[in-house]
Amino acid sequence: MSAEHLVGPAHHPSLLDACRQGNPALATLLLQHDPTDSLVHATTTPSRYTPLHAAALLNCVDVAAVLLRHGADVDAQDIAGTTPLMIAASLGHRSFVRVLLEANANLNASALDGSTALHVAAYHGQLDIVDDLIDAGADVTVTRPDGVDLQLIAVREGHTDLVKALATPLKLEHVFVAASHGHLPVVVHAIAGALQHHQVETLVHSSAILAAFERGHVDVADLLLQHVDLDHLDAVLALALPKAAEAGQLEAVQYLLAQGVNVQGPDNEVATAAVHLAVQNNHLAVVETLVEKIGDARALSIPNALGHYPMHLAAQEGHAEMLAYLSLLGASVDVRFLDGSTPLHLAAEKGHLKAVILLTALGNSPDEPTEYLCGKSPRELAQLKGHVAVETFFGSL
Question: d(Cα 270, Cα 206) in Å, to the nearest integer?
Fold first, then answer.
């Protein structure tokens, strides 16, 4: 069937018009003048929507009743395997859902990705419809091929009442999901009773705490930390600081520093990692906070285990403002990576014009030889990589 069967030829009323108008009389008239019953089963191209799909989308309850009386397939699936029930459930069309349930719609029909109407309703937060589907007998245990089930959806979307209603014990993976999405009430529920006691004790071995800090959910992380053995607390905080710094979560960084994460000393690996990751990702406020806590701007001149200095990392990413800040606090541009490259080599190779201009002004030479890429200078690297703007700038010097 072509889309014309559903949409209708130009200037002629169609079932889609009937849906848009909420006009069951028009739908009845059209179907009565369709002796082959082809119209009620027609599908659009390429989506394979039926008139009942369209009615579900537009919440045309009365039109749906007409379609069903004329033999519409209540469980028709479009190209993605979506049924009218899934559409109505996702959009919160509760009365429409009830009409489909009265027509014995398949509660557990699955789309191509394995989702059922129950999954779709929960994902979109249509909790009244979730209740209706469960009351009607929908299977709450159906699991998609990717392992997602109703419980995981409820946890991920923060539907605490639904999580409680399912009354299924949560696992550590659920705590991780809830923590990473910042759903404190779900985490509270999990800690309060859904987890076995020995699982709570192993939270330190999960990544839930790190995920909470990385996403900036300090309230969730604070709750989880209360269940970490004191013998492990310092280690957890030390792991979390670089994660929070890398993600630019200033509040989380401030919290961790206030909790006493040790960032003192010239060989402090935690401080070095946090500073380098914050610099690389251009989180200036985080770098400023770390330097203030460390109390020594020389932390900005310490290489990491790979030999990269903060200057290299900022130059490679083209973070001109960060480069200016590092220089202002005394970090030298005359630092070399293990292969001999200066910050200017990296900025020129990547074509970061603003960084190139700043580094040149700070003293890096465009003609500095190095072991990097067979002895290429920054000028030669810009030419090799085709960065015309950088070449032009170097040519103006």
Answer: 20
Give the span between the Cα atoms of 189 and 168, in whole angstroms.
12
Q: Domains in the chain, ordered, with CATH?
A: 328-397 (1.25.40.20)
Would you tell me how many other CB atoms lie within 10 Å of the CB of residue 10? 6
| pLDDT per residue as tens digits for the range 306-347 | 888 999 999 999 999 999 999 999 998 889 888 888 999 999
CA distance 287 to 235: 21
The structure tokens listed for 28 are 């009845």
Average pLDDT, rounded, for the chain: 87
Check: CB of residue 137 under 8 Å from CB of residue 118: no
225 in Cβ contact with 218 (< 8 Å): no
Four-point Cα dihedral 137, 110, 160, 125, nearest 10? -110
End-to-end alpha-carbon separation of the chain, Å?
A: 70
Angle at 130 between CA 128 and CA 134, to 5 degrees: 120
Mutual orientation of helices 94-102 and 127-135 as an angle, nearest 10°?
10
Q: For residue 343, which of 322, 313, 372 has the smallest C-alpha distance?
A: 313
Task: State pTM to two decimals.
Answer: 0.80
Report DSSP state, residue 145. Answer: T
Residue 382: what residue type?
A
Q: What residues does 149 pair with on adjacent strands?
A: 143
The structure tokens 């998609």 sit at 144
Amino acid residing at 120: V
Q: Round to whole Å and give the CA distance between 313 and 326.
A: 11
